[in-house]
Structure formats: structure tokens, C-alpha cells
Input
Amino acid sequence: MREGQNAVIHRADYRPPAFWIDSVELCFDLDPVKTRVLNRMRLRRNPDQPAQALRLDGEELNLARVLVNGQGTSFKLEDSQLILENLPEGNAPFELEVFTTCAPAKNTKLMGLYVSNDSFFTQCEAEGFRRITYFLDRPDVMASYNVTLRADKAAYPVLLSNGNLVEQGDLDGGRHFARWVDPHRKPCYLFALVAGKLVAREQRITTASGADHLLQVYVRPGDLDKTEHAMNSLMASIAWDEGRFKLPLDLERFMIVATSDFNMGAMENKGLNIFNTKYVLASQATATDTDYANIESVVGHEYFHNWTGNRVTCRDWFQLSLKEGLTVFRDQEFSQDLAGEASARAVRRIEDVRVLRTAQFPEDAGPMAHPVRPDQYLEINNFYTVTIYEKGAEVVRMMQTLVAGEGDPLGRAGFARGMALYFERHDGQAVTCDDFAQAIADANPGSPLARLLPQFKRWYSQAGTPRLKARSHWDAATGTYSLALSQSCTPTPGQPHKDPFVIPVRLGLLDAEGRQISDGLHVLTEDSDTLTMSGLAGEPVPSILRGFTAPVILEYDYTDAQLLILLAHDTDPFNRWEAAQRLAIHRALHFIRSGEHVELDAPFVEAMRAVLRHPTLDSAFKDLVLTLPSETYLAEQLDEVDPQRIHAVREAMRMGLATALRHDWEWVYEQNKDTGAYRPDSRSAGRRALAGMALTHLCLAARTSGDPVWPGKTLQRFKDAGNMTDRFNALAALVACGHELAAPALASFHALFKNEALVLDKWFALQAGAPDHGGNILPVVKQLMQHPDFNLRNPNRARSLIFSYCSANPGGFHRRDAAGYVFWCERVMELDAINPQVAARLARALDRWKKLADPYRGAAREAIARVAAKPDLSRDVREVVTRALA
Ligand code: PHE
Ligand code: ZN
Output
């Protein structure tokens, strides 16, 4: 019953494997049409498990031969498994040889072995290795790999796999070979091979421990000049992990290879990371500051997996957050440490929280809600989610916060001790989230984490975003201030009741002049709890959940006056930003609910002006403060959602800021427009971001005034720009205000970059994600589907056009005539036949349909039902739409 199309896999059903695979010898004869794979394994029975048949996983393979200890044997093929019942008795090792073929050129799912731009690549996580050969495709089976690659030498001059190159040479018929041996045992999801016409940027380094290493970044021949930033990021990652966690590089050679056909961002295969080109290639002419920052963080992320994921891996896929949550936490810390100054760190933190709130909170409130450690799944690919990654990282962050102590106010030293113990205990093993939490706690006896561990672990088992309610009481007569905190969490699918979480709450108090009175960490463990402070001269302003110390929704009835004090004075930059968000949300919700004409009040406008004109605040921080909460985030604050109303209100508020602050935007633009020779550092990136924001507002303001000056200046900047960030921001400003200069600028942008795939992705995404004016976006999207540069099979391109519209443009997508939903439904079905993983991600665009007001709600339901009714739907999409309709 395990493998059938409808079988739900349960965490509670975990059993250790019945067999171990100690070593694997793989020999590939690479050919796009028919690749031959000879797989020789040494296996033995797991003495701790009852004797049983060997069941190897395999998918879309042609089986030619099976030998046990060199002899033919009987076998069965059932439900994508190769079953061997007559194996030698006893615990002695035996050799199993399996010979299969597969068809890489026909592999559009991009899982297993596939062809992209005439090169071979593999993707094995989570269950892609079974598309290469029959195997025990589960992460707790760790083997040594010895891999021989054979291919035509002219077509595939470079042959790569994990570990060390031990032998290479020529063969008859213009073919050649390379043999790779990985010195580390690994689960098969970390296997990789690459073959093709590639070139490498190389760097030799000597690490702090004195060891020499060769670093390589492989790309297609024309792309070598775009690899410097990735290489710098890799070197920075290596130095950071050695410095902060004492974790060295454990390989002589570390390779990164870029491919333009990739389902995800990148993959941490041991010693041979395979990346989406989007997270490798950058030049100032083609990549924005955001691209540079993303490359730094993804290169870091994959590198950090070498310890958190590879040296210590997951026992089963329910433990996915063991490696992903922890590694996201590590890459976030890395990016913050590289950003340097406290204010730049805070900007990173705010950006991370914004992702959590706009993507993970809705997931936690919708049909796909699942705990950080899920209990069941139909298709594991559907669980590479913001909950596993971003909420998982917040859970790790809370652990760090909860091991803080004297001389270690942030818990960094305590957490590093915990990591050291984790590796001491588990290096080379496949373990669970419990093992990780236990190690961090055990290394910090007496800490709140150690005391509260069983309760703390509810963060792993309970889905849903907790609500933290705060109510204050001020007794002027005694100078006593009290803050009552309480928590609750609404039911999620399969979890009607929630027990209280451990919620670390960093709390500051400010006096009426904005001076800090106190700051400390409070840990809420019960349903409710009251903090009391006495001897105060006046009623304080509370700064609750500083630094966003827990992934919760904070409800406190802040008055505008309190928020203005926090915005002007809070020493915690996160809450300073948060105060501005709350001011904006109060107003947006008021206009959305009342239907009143949008008019911004003077105190709000003045507060925004003060931020814009502030003499010392960072440009990046100003940019974040002036960015209104997203339509998606606003929708989450409402019980019933009219996406058009939200869109109209948010656009009107943006227009309000554009016109009321016109002179301030001009001033800000002048102050920030020149950043000198291009460098992607956070300070100059912040200045470029703010200059771009100013241009957008100035163009918006010109829309009402009809003044041609700013659109003209913007076009000029678009033409003259010395880097992609300035060029793209200027283009985006013209597109955002719907100016007639946008069309020629878009055409010239396309002409300039017609040979740069990643820039064309931006070109598609910008048009599909543009603000909707009277339903104009869908026709553009449909037209772009016919563009010669559009290709549904390339995930980056599909995402840039279809996802930018369906998932990132609520104002354009949710149409009263339901045409957006019909488009969505057709694309999900079309993509499902090509690449179910990508289709299932698109399918999630309507997750929150139950919140929609009519006519959207009924139309959305109908579109989902139409997808669900399609015969031969993949398991991936079926799981998403079935849960949506439940
Ligand atoms: N493990 C990869 C990462 O987080 C993500 C990934 C999952 C890539 C599945 C491909 C397939 O770094
Ligand atoms: Zn990862």
C-alpha cells in the first residue's frame, strides 16, 4: 500500500530500513536519448529489523538486468518498486547489480537525470534518485559512492560528480571518461552528476585551519564574466562558517554549477552544488542589487548545508526543517553579519519578517497549513514550503534567544555551544528535529530553553500562527503599569485544539518623550500572564515583541500617538518600522471597510515626511518604512476579502503619498540618485532603492498633474543608467504609473537584453506584475504567452510570466469576470503535464479562496474544482486542490 498514487505517508509509520547499502558503484553511459546506468551495490540486512524482502524504489526506468552476487535471480516489479524475495539469508554483505536505462532528453519534470541546453544535470532531492536507478531512496540510507561517467568528448568535455576526481582518460569512438570518488558517505538525495560544455572560474584558497582547497564555479562559456560575485560569496561563506561556528570545509574541491532549467533555487549535493542560474550569474549590467543579495544568501545557504544537512542529515522527510529551517537561520545570520552595521542588520531582519508575514502566515491560515515537522503528506515536493523554511528558521532563532545568558545577551555563544554538541553527537548520522533541539538545550543547562524544552517543541508539532494579545493598564495614583499578555491559536486542518506555545517576548518601555525606560525578555508559557512595573512617573509606551522575537501575530490597540512616538524614537529598529506599518494598516483597513474616499491625514503624512527627511536614518530603512503593506498582507487582516477594493485603496494611498510628499520625493531623489562606481554593498543598494522609490512616486504624481517632467527624466535615467538596478527601477517607475513612455522603454529594454535569459525574465515579470488599471494586465499576459521568447517548459520563464500574474498581482488576477481564474486553471493543467512540481506551486495561488467575497469566491471554487476533476492529475497538484476544496 505504500506507493500507490493515493497513499498518504505518515510520520508515525517510520521504520528503519530492512537493508543497509554500504557502497555504490555507478557507471553511466551518457546519451540524451538512452542513458545506460550500471549500478553495483553492496548491501546487508539490517540485523535490527525482521527478515523481509528487499524493495527498491524506481520510476520511469527500463530494467535490463538484475544480478545477486553475479548470478541471475528472480524479481518482481510492482508499484514502482523492484522486489527481491530470494536474497541470501544471514547478515553477510552481498552484491546486487542492477542495469537500467532512462531517457534524459524526455525528462521535463527536471527530477532525476535531465538535459538542459545540451548538458546533463541531475536533481535528486527529495526522491529523484529513483529516476536514475533502483535504490533505497530514503535519506537514512547512507552509502559510499564511486562514479564513472562516460560520454562523447566533443559534446560533453566536462564530466563532474561528487567528491574527488581520481581518474580520467579517452575511450574509443571519440568518447572519454572520468571517475569520481566521494570520501564522505551520503544519502542518495545528495548524489549529483553534470556533463557538458562548461567553463569554470577557479579559486584556490587556504582556510584558517591551513588546508588547501579548489573552488570552482561552472557556467556556460559566455557567462564566465558573471561569476565573480558568486565566487566571492562562496569564499565569504567558508570564512563565516569557520569563524562563527568553527565548521571547516571538509572537501579538497568544492564545485558550483549553474543551469537555466531548475525547479528550485539551488541544491546542496555534496561537493557539487547545482544552482539555478538566477542565483549564480551577476554583472552590474544585468543583475539588480536584489539579485546580488539573493546570490550571496543562496550561495551561503547551500554551502552551510554542507554541515547542516549533509554531514548531519534527516532521518526521514518529515524532518526536512531539521536541515532547512536551521540552514535558513544560518544564511540569515550570515547575510546580517556581512551587512555590518546595526542598521543594515535590522534592514535584513525586517525583510525576512516581511517574507514570513506575506507568505508563511497565509500558508499557516490556509488549507495547506502544516506543522514545521509535518505528520503526513501525499507528495513530499509539496512540503518545501515557507513553513518548513522560514517558520523553521524562526523556531531556531527562538532557541538562540532562549539560551541567552550573562555576557551573551543574544544567545549567540550559547547557540554555538549547542551546535558544537549537535555535531559531537550526530556527525555522520541521519537524525530528527528532536535530536537537534535536545542538543541545543543540553549544551545550555539552566536556560529557559532547557527548562521548557517539551513545551517549546510544540512549535514543531502544532501548525498555525499564534495570536499574542496585549492589554495595558495604567494606574496613575500608584505609578503602576501592567501589561496583560495572552495567547491563542486558531484550529488548522487536523488540529482543532492547540496547547500554549513558549513565546519569547522582548519588551521595551518608552516614556512620553520617547526615552527608553526599560528593556527585557519575557517568556510567555501560559495562556495568559501579566507583567507589572511600578514607580513610573507617567504612562509608558510599550514596544512589544522587539526584533520580532517570535513568529506570532501581535494584537495591541496602539493609539496613533503611541505609534508616532515609537516611529520617532524607538531604539529597536524593527519596532520603529513596525509602528509605521501599523499606522498605514489602520488607515488602509479603515478605507477598505468604510468604502470612504481615500484621503491621507496630516499626522500620517507628516510622519512619513519626517522619515524621508530624517538626517541620519539609512536610505534602505526609509525605503522599507515608506513601502505600504502588501495587498496580500492587508487581505490577511480581513475576514472577507474584496481584492479589487484592497488594490484600489492601496494604490490610492500610494498616490496620496506621491502627491503630498512631492517635494520631499524630489529632494530624496537628488540626495540618493548618484551612488558612484557600482558596488552591491547594502549602503549604496539602499540609496539606489530609495532613489527608485522616489522616481516611482514622482511619476505617479505626474499622472494626476499631467506634468511631463518626471516621466521624461525617468526615461532619461533608464537610458543613461550605468547598472541594472537604476535602469530597471526607472523602467518600473514608468510601468507603475502606466505612462505612455513605458511601451517604448519596454521595447528598448527587450532589444538591449534579448540574449540575456535572466533579464528577459525580469521583462516578463515586470509586465505581468504591473498595477492593474481597469483590467489591462490579463490581456498583456495572454499576449506575452505567444511571445517567441516565452517557453512554458523553462521554470524560470513560466514563473516570470504566469506566477508574477497569478501569485504576485492580486489586483490584476482577481477579476470580477473570473477570467484570471480561468487562465490560472488552464495553466495549472497545462503545466501539470510537463512539470507537476511547478504546476503544484502555481496551484497554490488560490489557497485563500474561502476568504474571498463574492463573486470571486464562487468563481475561484469553480476553477479549483475544474482542476480537481481533470483525469490523470499528478499527485502533486491533486494534494493541493483536494486540500483547498476540503
Ligand atoms: N534543498 C534545496 C535547498 O534548500 C532545495 C531543493 C529541494 C532543491 C528540492 C531542489 C529540489 O537548498
Ligand atoms: Zn536548503
Q: What stands out?
A: The CA atoms of residues 367 and 884 lie 5 Å apart. Residues 301, 305, 324, 327 surround zinc ion (ligand 2) (CB under 6 Å). The longest strand covers residues 19-29. The mean pLDDT is 98.
